[in-house]
Design brief:
alpha/beta; 5-stranded mixed β-sheet; 10 helices; flat
């Protein structure tokens, strides 16, 4: 409905930058989702939520209360740090005393973390991800061609002909509004234009990865060089993203199938496997301990 809704419908984004921005709407959204998928049979269940690392205790408590104080009446609510859930979902043993580097490129956030012995050694949360790439495509095409395109069109350009490295030769025809005439027109956009639009935002992520590597202890750095960097998240689906990070760091980059599902797979293992159960925690035990 975004950019298509009439004035009588207000489109809301209840989670912004990895944290809850509209508590009532996110509660309604989850309630409807559970009714649809679980047919309402979730009362007394155990819930586990992946949370970004560099957020405050108050913001984590909001995720906890979202379920704990809801009509669902859960048996328990557990939280798990998102990079750790990512690593578990990638079939990595986070309990070992070896360094694991995970780069998770989401829609609103990019999280760069180094994990060892089941905990976070160092982490950086960037408050931009795939959506920022879409916005940069919109602004670049408007500035260069006087053509206004929507966010869905920008996302289509990014996914179909976007590339993290120059040299791709594909093209896509899009429809937008001509700023000069005010009329809708068709225009062919080349892959090189999409790359030029995204390269500054990608450079910011590359700089953050280099900064985290500079702060990583030498022993863990050795492990990362041997095992490589693990790249996950929906934003990592952009073509040649792994090659870009390898070019910047001289470290091999590991990708996976369905990178936008690794956190969910990790959470599933955390609640079902005795080996990983200690990675989740409850806010109640944190507050009253």
């Amino acid at each position: 409905m975004y950019e298509k809704a009439p004035d009588t419908i207000q489109v809301s984004f209840p989670v912004v930058g990895g944290v809850i921005a509209d508590y009532n709407n996110v509660q309604t959204m989850i309630q409807k989702l559970l009714e649809k998928t679980a047919k309402g049979h979730v009362r007394g269940s155990e819930f586990i939520v992946a949370v970004p690392t560099d957020i405050t205790e108050v913001e984590k408590k909001a995720f906890f209360d979202l379920f704990y104080k809801s009509k669902i009446k859960p048996r328990s609510v557990l939280l798990c740090d998102k990079p750790i859930a990512d690593a578990v979902g990638l079939d990595l043993d986070v309990n070992e005393p070896t360094g694991i580097m995970v780069v998770d490129m989401g829609a609103d956030t990019t999280e760069i973390s180094v994990i060892s012995l089941g905990g976070l050694v160092i982490s950086d949360l960037l408050h931009f991800g795939g959506n920022r790439l879409d916005e940069s495509i919109i602004s670049y095409i408007k500035k260069t061609f006087n053509l206004v395109i929507g966010q869905k069109t920008a996302m289509q350009l990014k996914e179909e002909i976007g590339s993290a490295l120059p040299g791709r030769e594909d093209a896509l025809t899009v429809v937008g509004l001509d700023v000069v005439s005010g009329l809708p027109i068709e225009m062919q956009i080349d892959a090189s234009i999409v790359y030029e639009a995204m390269k500054d935002s990608l450079a910011s992520i590359c700089n953050s990865i280099k900064m985290i590597l500079e702060k990583t202890p030498p022993e863990l750095s050795r492990d990362i060089i041997h095992s490589g960097i693990y790249l996950t998240g929906g934003g990592s689906k952009v073509a040649d993203m792994d090659k870009l990070f390898t070019e910047i760091t001289n470290i091999s980059v590991n990708t996976c199938e369905d990178p936008d599902e690794t956190v969910v797979r990790g959470l599933s293992l955390v609640v079902t496997s005795e080996k990983f159960k200690h990675l989740a925690y409850s806010m109640r035990t944190r507050i009253f301990r």
